[in-house]
Design brief:
This protein is α+β, with helices and mostly antiparallel strands. It contains 13 helices and twelve strands. The strands form four sheets. It has a six-stranded mixed sheet with strand order 11-6-1-2-3-12, with helices on both faces. It has a two-stranded antiparallel sheet with strand order 4-5. Strands 7-10 form a two-stranded antiparallel ribbon. Helix 4 packs antiparallel against helix 5, helix 6 crosses helix 7 and helix 6 runs antiparallel to helix 10.
């Protein structure tokens, strides 16, 4: 049976009474008219417009997302952290980096530097070994021109244990790494595949050390720090934040207090909830042949971490 002879035309045979095709056609047209009338009546009664009818499910999802975001605490300001990882005797620095939680812009900023960084004719490692972490922090503040709100000093085993409690995170390596290094009783091995993989605390610690000591690639070290932050500071870990904070206090030598933690809970909640939407910034350390930061690199780090 042909309903449409040509596009836009309705075909009706000449002998209408004798044609079964015509009867079917009229029945179909009648059904369309009745259905259209009922549908228009339904729309008029329940919806202000056709657009509202077709988009109703989509609007519901959007409203739920908006409500979820609106329920998050309002936070602002910037907090700078100094993070140092050492061997198990707190003697030799394996890695050192600056981290900022920018609450106003919902961003993490990272700047890893070399333990061999020379500041006024002394290396970071030597300042730390001779005078301790507080003197090192003081000298870094004088050199870079910005304050650290808190510091955390981890020995190797404690850092690994703490990260393992946070879980694993996805790291995309641009190369395969199979390396053994270190000196005497401070040796380490590292095996990383190329491409995406989940890495644990031990692999994180060894990668930070590898990029800092062996590769001297502080851009890759920054990237690892930032991926760890977004991969580990998540809603699941926020649900056990009190337990993790107690472990942090046990694992690190730090000036963070319980009161500081309680004050920061709103910020932790926001960064945990928005973990996949946090903006990431990296300020790359570059050196001359005497292990002194170049002026442009020094200015870049200062620009990121000044409040």
């Amino acid at each position: 049976m042909k309903i449409f002879k040509n596009r836009g035309d309705i075909y009706v045979p000449k002998s209408v009474r004798a044609s079964k095709q015509a009867k079917v056609l009229y029945l179909l047209l009648a059904f369309i008219v009745v259905f259209t009338a009922v549908f228009i009546g339904f729309l008029s009664k329940n919806y202000n417009s056709a657009a509202e009818f077709f988009a109703k499910g989509e609007l519901t999802v959007t409203e739920e997302l908006t409500d979820s975001a609106a329920q998050l605490p309002k936070i602002s300001g910037k907090t700078n952290y100094l993070i140092i990882g050492t061997d198990n005797d707190y003697d030799s620095i394996h890695f050192i980096f600056f981290l900022q939680a920018d609450k106003t812009n919902k961003a993490y900023k990272a700047a890893c530097i070399s333990p061999k960084t020379v500041i006024n004719n002394q290396s970071v490692q030597k300042i730390y070994k001779n005078s301790g972490v507080l003197e090192l922090e003081k000298r870094l503040v004088e050199y870079f021109g910005f304050e650290f709100d808190y510091y955390a000093l981890f020995d190797d085993s404690s850092f690994v244990e703490f990260v393992n409690k946070l879980g694993t995170f996805v790291y995309a390596s641009g190369m395969e790494i199979d390396y053994s290094g270190g000196k005497e009783d401070d040796k380490y091995t590292l095996k990383i595949n190329q491409g995406e993989q989940k890495i644990s605390g031990r692999e994180t610690a060894n990668l930070l050390r590898y990029f800092s000591e062996k590769e001297k690639n502080f851009a890759l070290e920054n990237e690892l720090v930032l991926r760890a932050m977004t991969g580990l500071i998540t809603e699941n870990n926020y649900d056990r934040a009190d337990l993790l904070f107690r472990l942090f206090m046990k694992s690190a030598k730090t000036d963070v207090t319980v009161r500081d933690f309680e004050t920061a809970k709103d910020s932790i909640k926001v960064f945990s909830t928005l973990s996949n939407e946090i903006t990431l910034y990296s300020s790359n350390a570059q050196y001359d042949d005497k292990n002194v930061l170049t002026q442009s690199s020094l200015s870049g780090i200062k620009g990121y971490f000044s409040k």
